[in-house]
Specification:
By secondary structure, the chain is of the alpha/beta class. The chain folds into 2 domains: 34-211 and 431-512, no CATH class; 212-422, 3-Layer(aba) Sandwich (D-Maltodextrin-Binding Protein, domain 2). It has 16 helices and 22 strands.
Length: 514
């Protein structure tokens, strides 16, 4: 009996020891850990996460010191649990060399996607603290892989972002593109005209990649567009008759610029431009857009509506334009409406109520302004469930998966990296990384080394090649990121290298430089 008791105690001791050791290899808040705080674009979060995880940390599988918080990676790409996430590791020798750090240096990279691209511009310049995930108490997270992957980490701590990332250059955030969150008082200090030329000059701004955008519709509208355009009479690339399941470009429905502009401006009271289904023509017009300050929305405003590039531009419809049951503003930082509704409840309330199964109201318009891309997808899904139609803005690195939406062609061309980099599809913009020059000069030597090197590495085709195939479809490398002519160079440069540019000016037409 004594022997059995001794064995039991020994087993318990081992179990206790294992539990004690089950902690991340890097404490993000240790004095020796290099902390980096980045805010801004949600559309580029997969590219940023891939750069940190794969290039700097050497990959999760190969580097046992790597820990992920509110983000996970699989063969189909990255998944994010909310808008605040982090990655920690001890950098590999190769990864450290990329960002100017010795091998084995502990690094903690924090990213806030909340509010979109403008949050990678204004707080970076003005020095406003933003919420980032707080992982000091892991009991407040769900551990999905021992020591390595934590999700549902809800606590936050407010920190000034050191560096920002934006789908478009900082100068495009002017007028209707300046953030105006209804509950975030920091937005109140942001000038309606955006940063002046002098203020922008205080930032170091680095163009990094070309981000491809697209127009998305829910499945019901997609199928009815397919029918109205007579696409069943066409052939796919294999010579088979097109169906709504066909992904080949000739089989995908198309929307024209004029049609898109009319719908997003809210001037269409029905769906006659896109559908011939009499049962749905007069159902509520649901516009699934992003909030002011979103880079995706700023790109849509510039490309589709001509704002702020054209003095005769057409204003996009906002929530104030809605005639649906219960429209109200949404806060990007609370993820709820001003009255406290969850976005799921808010969508149902404005699409027929009840359990969300319809019927969709008729004769009205609902403009949903989502804080993130996932919220736009939720809007498209909600319209599908309620038996109606919806149209919205979704960047190309996103794929429908099990959701009820698809990208459509724009003026006959399907959004893709290959179409964009060749100049055949021009709904793309040059994304930037920026930091306040004098602020970063006061950070530690390690942080000063890391930040510009991160931007430099993000622009490389080799970094984009490490993304999942889905994520790769939404980004291209800038023409000046590789030497030689278009279509010449390493395999990755040929795959990702673009021949066209806007020269870091979103209001400039696309020109071929290679």
């Amino acid at each position: 009996m004594l022997k059995l008791r001794s064995i039991a105690l020994a087993v318990a001791a081992v179990a206790s020891s294992s539990t004690a050791l089950a902690a991340p290899a890097v404490n993000p808040y240790d004095a020796g850990t290099v902390q980096i705080y980045m805010s801004g674009a949600s559309a580029l979060r997969a590219a940023v996460a891939g750069l940190v995880l794969n290039d700097v940390c050497g990959g999760s599988a190969a580097n046992s010191s790597t820990t992920l918080y509110n983000v996970a990676e699989s063969g189909s790409g990255f998944t994010f649990n909310g808008n605040l996430w982090a990655i920690t590791c001890r950098v590999t020798a190769a990864g450290g060399a990329l960002v100017g750090l010795p091998a084995n240096t502990p690094v903690a990279f924090f990213k806030s996607d909340a509010g979109g691209s403008a949050q990678g511009v204004f707080p970076v310049y003005f020095g406003d603290a933003r919420p980032f995930v707080d992982v000091a108490d892991l009991s407040k997270c769900a551990q999905t892989t021992a020591d390595r992957v934590y999700t549902a980490c809800a606590p936050t701590r407010n920190v000034r972002p050191m560096v920002g990332v934006s789908d478009v250059e900082p100068g495009l955030f002017t007028g209707i593109n300046v953030p105006a969150d209804p509950v975030d008082t920091d937005d109140d200090i942001y000038p309606p005209a955006g940063l002046s030329a002098g203020q922008q000059g205080e930032l170091t701004i680095k163009p990094v990649v070309q981000t491809v955008f697209g127009i998305a519709v829910n499945t019901a509208l997609y199928n009815d567009m397919f029918a109205k355009q007579g696409l069943a009479g066409r052939k796919d690339f294999a010579g088979n008759a097109c169906t709504t399941a066909s992904a080949d470009e000739p089989c995908v429905p198309s929307i024209g610029y004029a049609e898109a502009r009319s719908l997003f401006a809210g001037t269409e009271a029905n769906w006659r431009l896109l559908s011939a289904n009499a049962a749905k023509l007069d159902t509520q017009v649901n516009i699934c857009r992003r909030v002011a300050g979103s880079g995706t929305q700023a790109a849509a405003n510039a490309h589709l509506m001509g704002i702020p590039c054209n003095s005769a531009g057409v204003s996009p419809a906002t929530v104030d334009f809605s005639s649906s049951a219960a429209p109200e503003q949404i806060s990007a930082f609370t993820g709820k409406t001003v009255s406290g509704k969850t976005l799921a409840t808010y969508l149902v309330d404005n699409m027929g109520g009840g359990a969300g199964n319809g019927p969709m109201p008729s004769g009205s318009t609902f403009v949903f302004e989502g804080p993130g891309t996932g919220d736009v997808v939720s809007c498209l899904n909600a319209a599908q469930k309620a038996g109606g139609y919806a149209i919205g803005h979704v960047s190309r690195e996103n794929v429908p998966g099990s959701n009820n939406w698809k990208h459509v062609r724009l003026e006959g061309t399907f959004p893709s990296r290959d179409a964009a980099k060749s100049g055949r599809y021009d709904y793309f913009f040059e994304s930037t990384v920026q930091w306040k020059t004098d602020y970063v000069s006061g950070l530690s030597a390690a942080q000063q080394a890391f930040i510009p090197k991160l931007a430099e590495r993000m622009a490389k085709a080799d970094s984009l090649a490490r993304l999942s195939s889905a994520n790769q479809n939404g980004v291209a490398a800038l023409p000046d990121s590789y030497a030689g002519e278009f279509g010449v160079g390493t395999a990755n440069e040929v795959t990702f290298g673009s021949r066209v540019t806007r020269a870091a000016n979103s209001c400039q037409p696309v020109t071929a430089v290679k």
